[in-house]
Amino acid sequence: MAVVVPEDIGVPSWDLYELSIPLTVFGQPPPDLTMPWYDLKLCRVEAGSVAGAGSEYGLSLRTPYGLDDLVGADTVIVTSVPDPVVEEGVPMDPALIDALRRAQASGARMMSLCTGAFALAEAGLLDGRRATSHWLHSGQLAARYPKVEVDDSVLYVDDGDVLTSAGVTAGLDLCLHLVRRDLGAHVANQLARRMVVPAHRPGGQAQFIDLSVPDDDCGSLNPVLDWARAHLDEPLTVEDLARRAAMSPRTLHRKLQAATGTTPLQWLLNQRLGRAQTLLESTDLPVEKVAELSGLGTANNLRHHFLKQIGVSPSDYRRAFPRTLARA
């Protein structure tokens, strides 16, 4: 996994935070979760160059890897581009664009966090594809690269061999999603737990653009959501959740939509699918029992939602993530 270190990274900017996300998720092998882990390399435009040497805080970053090391990597991540590239249209380094194209041609999975999408778009890797970036910059991305289908309503887009995320913490969502895709829900959930973050945040960027609900509304839902997670095997309804939360179904719908970007029924389905994934990975229970314990009722219903939401059958999912991996 090769991570591009942006030019002229400054400690006061968001660049350093977004660079730290893949380092935190992919950089430190957790041997008690699964092995082997990712082999992470930081790649600069010129190997051995210094990032942030002139910053007011005096921090610097050195790496022995350069852009040539992008070619041959299984995954290439561009965490950001310099602010002048986005705000003023300053051209990107041609060497970076060439390296991204060569990496993609060699079979690498390409991924961007926040404004890193501008680099993938400049290289032509997002042409004809759906992609996202921070909602503040999505208009500029769409105007500058009209061949890209920009969606500013989502936290991230997984288009198979090309993945893009919205800004800041949405990059963490995408990185954990990649762990889930590569190594399974059990590993991703345990890693997220150690980082004290949600393994999956439903909804999209819209919830951060305009919050019409007071901040304490999200917190007021936590008890009922925790209760629902503990009773997923029961036939829960929106009315059940509303009654537990001591509010009307309409109020519950409005608050949950504002807090998570999704409806109560979709939230329940997401939770049940997550429970089913964990059971398929960590137990030998038959599919019928997995459906029952996750609250999806029958094996046919489980298969239907699995195929629709995850893209594979429960049996294929279990074969992809055997118990030996989940328990390693």
Automatic annotation (TrEMBL):
Single GO MF descriptor: sequence-specific DNA binding
Signal peptide boundaries: none
Span of domain HTH araC/xylS-type: 222-320
Gene3D superfamilies: 3.40.50.880, Homeodomain-like
One Pfam family of this chain: HTH_18
Keywords assigned: DNA-binding, Transcription, Transcription regulation
Matching CDD domains: GATase1_AraC_1
Protein name: AraC family transcriptional regulator
Organism encoding this protein: Streptomyces finlayi
Lineage of source species: Bacteria, Bacillati, Actinomycetota, Actinomycetes, Kitasatosporales
